[in-house]
Amino acid sequence: xxxKNMFTKRRERLxxxxxxxxxRGPVKEKPVPDDLYTKCSACGRPILSHKYRENLRxxxxxxxxxxxxxxxxxxxxxxxxxxxELFRTVTSNDPLDFPGYEEKLAGLEQKLGLRExxxxxxxxxxxxxxxxxxxxxRFIMGSMxxxxxxxxxxxxxxxxxxxxxxxxxxxxxxxxxxxxxxxLMQMAKTSAAIARLGEAGCLYISVFTNPTTGGVTASFASxxxxxxxxxxxxxxxxxxxxxxxxxxxxxxxxxxRAEFQxxxxxVDEVVPRAAMRKKLIQLLKLHSGEVSLND
Length: 295
Fold this sequence. Notes:
A hairpin with a 6-residue loop joins strand 1 and strand 2. This protein has helices at about 1-20, 50-55, 70-75, 100-110, 145-160, 180-200, 215, 240-245, 260-265, 275-290, and strands at about 35-40, 45-50, 85, 120-125, 130-135, 165-170, 205-210, 225-230, 270. It has a 7-stranded mixed beta sheet with strand order 3-4-5-6-7-8-9, with helices on both faces. The chain has a two-stranded antiparallel sheet with strand order 1-2. The mean pLDDT is about 90. It is about 40% helix and about 15% strand. The longest helix is centred in the N-terminal third of the chain and has 20 residues, at about 1-20. It is globular and about 100 Å long. The N and C termini lie far apart (about 100 Å). By secondary structure, it is α/β, with parallel strands linked by helices.
């Protein structure tokens, strides 16, 4: 009983001491919102999310260009309020009755507000009217479905008819396996449409973003009169890992990246995201004759 009384008295003294100090016990940590910071996929450093968005989703530490959705791309590229979407009603179906495909498409439309992996339309860039297509890698990795190929084809035909320059921002993992041969057929169809665009005398600027691979690289993305790329963009048909496993050799550092492709003559210029709009304005005005090389 005495031991119990001693323990109680000690506990009371400790409580009084804490009250005297104003000690209210351990400090509770405030929860950090999940969207407060963004982790750079390249260097791993945390970036304040609002600063990341203001910097066009480019890491301020290592310069890595992050995923840029359709709305962000259009906002950073075209004149405000000038974009008019075309061919929105062209959507994918399920020709092979692939399990879960229709549900996946519906879920992505609800989540992203997109009905396909590419958005097409007309716009003005620096006052110059143009046809534009922007692919979004968040939509089934930007894979080329029959609807993606149809939208690109229709846009190229529209640009040829209206005598407009065409700009395509590519981002793709290749053909969409859920549509099989129907997806692969889009390579020939889009390439033919780009050829007709060239015959009509219209400028085509192709912009590679990270990643652009597979059937998109092997078709319309590689047919530009001028080919630009964002820094660090992966550009190729098969990915580096597939190539290494096939040839049983280690590939050189930076293989298939935009800078490597520029050295090999596959890309005309590597343009940082912040400078892309200015570069496009320069090219469009040069093509239209508004400015000369000496300006």
